[in-house]
Amino acid sequence: MLFSSSFFIFFFLPITLLIYAATPGIRLKNTILLVASVLFYWLGEKIYIAILFISILQNYAFGILISRHVNARPRLTILVVGIVSNLTILAYYKYFEFFTTTAGLSSELLTKIAPHHLPLGISFFTFQAIAYLVDIHRRDVVPQRNLIDYALFKAFFPQLIAGPIVRYQTVSRQLKRRRMTFVSFAAGAELFSIGLAKKVLVANSVAGPADQVFAQPPHDLTAPVAWLGIICYTLQIYFDFSGYTDMAIGLGRMFGFRLPKNFNYPYVAQSIQDFWRRWHITLSTWFRYYLYIPLGGNRNGVVRTQINLILVFLLCGLWHGASWNFVVWGAYHGFFLSLERTRFGRFLKFLPTNARIVYALLVVMIGWVFFRAADLEHAFAYIRAMMDIGTPTFVEPNKSFFAFASSETFFWIFVGFVCATRVPATFARIGHRGLARWATPAADFVRAFLVLGGLTLCSSYLLSGTYNPFIYFRF
């Protein structure tokens, strides 16, 4: 089920909120939320909800088993078994075909046992489970012994499908004590509306030109058309994913939860290192805390640090998808992160701020080609087209620049780049302060009016639109 679907907005969410608000006591509220979360996942995945149940039960048990032992060896043994069990399920459903194809294996038996579907959210709730077990092993947290509360931590529907990846210590107290107030509900509704607008108005509007350009053979593209395609995709993936995250965090606020922030204006980053502090923050935090630092981080010299960075981002790329495109994308980012730890990084600091932003954005945009292209051959050919290498001298009218770009496209590109900066937020704060000096109710009325107007506009798009899933659902 999509957060941006009419069924979710006008049926599932209102009914869940009404039942939740009318339910007394935190235990019953948690039970209601768990039932709603299970129904939410079942409506989209049907039989594959069994994978989620297995993940919940096995990690609940592993967590308690780890905590029962004082000695390091049995604690480590159970942790390793738990991690291997989680990764085995993930590897089977997500990487079976990739590994067997890469290894050149092919047989009737392999075809029969190969998975036919990738369960939604499996990469996210697997990483969440591994973090939970590692934190218990490190004694950072104590295991949750209430199965309903643990299941809610794992299956809470706002963050189940595409994050943010929530660590247990972030919500452990909230599972036992939280309040659903008008203020938190209003803040959540506002953030949900902003996320919905990002997805429905911006991401979906630039998705069309991006899809049309990437559907063309790269050797038929001129450089301007190739750049148009990647500019649109750069905006699409940001507003699609950050829109989902805003909606997820907003939904959490409506129910009294505070989920972690996942984006912080990544397209104004001044380096690739800065980009990863701003993009998919909970994932980069996970890799840093559970892989990069245990590997030694930057504590064992320059060479070891570079190796650690490359390895972590190779795995980060593989986490995103079972194809060589994502592996190369991860290696690409790892290379620039390593490069920025050399003299090149010191050189960057002497450049003007705008030059550093342009550098980081260009690197990120070229990287997105690997993310969007069908395969590596397509990706490299597309990059050559962007560089005006081997582009056609004669262009058919139906493949010219303005065949893909309309005035509406330019409008949403402009809106996208403006909204990808702090400009709208700054003006909103200034406007709110100005209204607040006059009358706080007036400021609240204006915000409510804007939110309602945005919801109405998005709803009109939804009712007249087509199915358009979030990009990160496939990861």
TrEMBL record:
The chain crosses the membrane at residues 7-27, 47-66, 78-96, 116-134, 182-201, 221-239, 309-332, 357-380, 401-425, 445-464. It is a multi-pass membrane protein. One of its GO terms (biological process) is alginic acid biosynthetic process. GO terms for cellular component: plasma membrane. This is Probable alginate O-acetylase AlgI. Its main location: membrane. Pathway: Glycan biosynthesis; alginate biosynthesis. The lineage of its organism: Bacteria, Pseudomonadati, Pseudomonadota, Alphaproteobacteria, Hyphomicrobiales. It comes from the Bacteria. Belongs to the membrane-bound acyltransferase family. Keywords: Acyltransferase, Alginate biosynthesis, Cell membrane, Membrane, Transferase, Transmembrane, Transmembrane helix. Pfam families: MBOAT. GO terms for molecular function: acyltransferase activity. It is found in: Cell membrane.
